[in-house]
Design brief:
- About 65% of the residues lie in helices and about 0% in strands.
- Strands 1-2 form a two-stranded antiparallel ribbon.
- The chain is mainly alpha-helical.
- It has one domain.
Length: about 425
């Protein structure tokens, strides 16, 4: 069929993509800052955990600056802040005290969970002790700074009685406490407490491996080059994700609107992460029994190795791009604004799609060195893993579907998204 660019452009103008809650510039600002630090770290052989934390900061600071001075996100009505109506601090002091009570008790509960359950001091799943050390270092400053921050913010919020206030009011026996607001508050902090600890635990290993990589002869070895690029993509992903979990601030319009209220959503997400991981070695969804990866099966075919390596790098790049697109708002199980730009202009779930295609192509579960039985089992289990991610996607859509902005995006994607339209054509052809 003949493709007329003019007609395509006219159709795009007639059906424009809904505005994204995050601009493309904020993510690329973070990528530029992070890349600059990685180059510096490579030149000076700075591959330790502190350098990895600086890498997160190098990603975070440019995104915050871009968000405030270019996108002016603090002026968005979704922040709930009325900058033109600053109340006297005496008018909001009681509210702030109640809010701080709820906030501090929430933090205390999270700290108790970290202390009681041994997983947070166990290195079998991830370097959680490093994450706990980070929390211990920042806890005093976080506690002290929360006081002026809450006092300052409550004077400017149109409705300062948020989830933290309802939590404090409930614990203090005050009237007006809304249990649904408390539940959302607790879910939001559960997301942050769980996933931030995990992200901090994996920040140093990936960064250290990449900075310390021996790049001699890299371009003569397609496998080494592919793995080097893939590692870089994961360093990007982890840095941006960590920044996203840290920067849940209302003045940046990156606060958590709602956390997923559905048990199915939490189940589908948590089984993809330690210590609940089902896809790990020996787990019920371990699809690696008797397998060898792409480098084994095509070891004697350099052109095939190069082609598959390039495809894997491209898939990882899409995965990293999907995280970059969030800017300062990346988070599992939460609603922090609807994204419509970057890879989300082509698919509702580009990260899940690219990640699963990467696993299928890199592992080749339908081939096994042990037996055809293992090959069949691995293929079925890998299909189940992909099913888990489909399940995750559906629970996320159910959560976000209450927002009219997502409904608009969802409708637009069904009409214009490259991936949904591809599947529509496939299913229509197979009927």
């Amino acid at each position: 069929m003949y493709h007329d660019p003019a007609l395509a452009e006219a159709a795009a103008r007639a059906d424009p993509r809904p505005k994204s809650a995050v601009s493309a510039g904020v993510g690329f600002a973070g990528l530029a800052g992070m890349t600059a630090w990685i180059v510096f770290a490579n030149l000076h052989h700075l591959d330790g955990p502190y350098s990895a934390l600086v890498n997160v900061a190098a990603c975070t600071v440019p995104m915050v600056l871009w968000s405030v001075f270019v996108d002016k996100v603090h002026r968005n009505p979704t922040t709930g802040i009325d900058w033109a109506n600053v109340r006297p601090w005496r008018d909001t002091l009681d509210i702030s005290i109640t809010k701080l009570t709820g906030l501090w008790l929430t933090w205390g509960g999270i700290a108790a969970i970290y202390a009681i359950f041994r997983v947070w001091s166990d290195t079998r799943f991830a370097n959680f002790p490093f994450a706990m050390w980070c929390f211990e270092m920042v806890a005093p400053a976080l506690f002290a700074l929360s006081i002026p921050y809450v006092l300052w913010l409550d004077r400017r919020m149109a409705e300062p009685r948020d989830g933290a206030w309802h939590m404090g009011a409930l614990l203090m026996g005050l009237e007006g406490a809304d249990k649904q607001a408390v539940y959302n508050h607790l879910r939001s902090w559960a997301v942050k407490g769980f996933f931030l600890a995990f992200m901090l635990s994996i920040v140093p290993p990936g960064f250290g491996d990449f900075v310390a990589w021996n790049t001699a002869g890299l371009f003569q070895n397609p496998v080494a080059l592919a793995n080097y690029c893939i590692t870089f993509m994961f360093v990007i992903d982890v840095a941006f994700a960590t920044a996203g979990y840290i920067l849940t601030f209302r003045p940046l319009d990156s606060h958590i609107r709602t956390a997923n209220p559905y048990a199915a959503g939490w189940t589908a997400a948590l089984i993809c992460y330690p210590p609940f991981l089902l896809m790990g070695d020996g787990g019920p969804l371990d699809y690696h029994q008797g397998t060898a990866d792409w480098t084994y099966w095509f070891a004697n075919h350099p052109w095939v190795l190069g082609s598959i390596g390039a495809a894997l790098v491209a898939l990882t790049a899409i995965y990293a791009w999907a995280t970059i697109a969030f800017g300062i708002r990346f988070s599992n199980l939460t609603h922090r604004g609807i994204l419509t730009h970057g890879p989300y202009a082509f698919s509702r779930h580009p990260a899940y799609l690219s990640k699963n295609l990467f696993w299928w192509l890199s592992t080749l579960p339908f081939l096994a060195t042990s037996s055809w039985t293992d090959a069949i089992r691995n293929t079925v289990v890998m299909a189940c893993v992909s099913g888990v991610y489909y399940w995750r996607a559906r629970t996320e859509e159910r959560h976000l579907g209450a927002d009219p902005a997502y409904q608009e995006y969802d409708d637009w994607m069904a009409r214009n998204g490259a991936i949904p339209r591809f599947f529509q054509r496939v299913f229509k052809t197979t009927r």
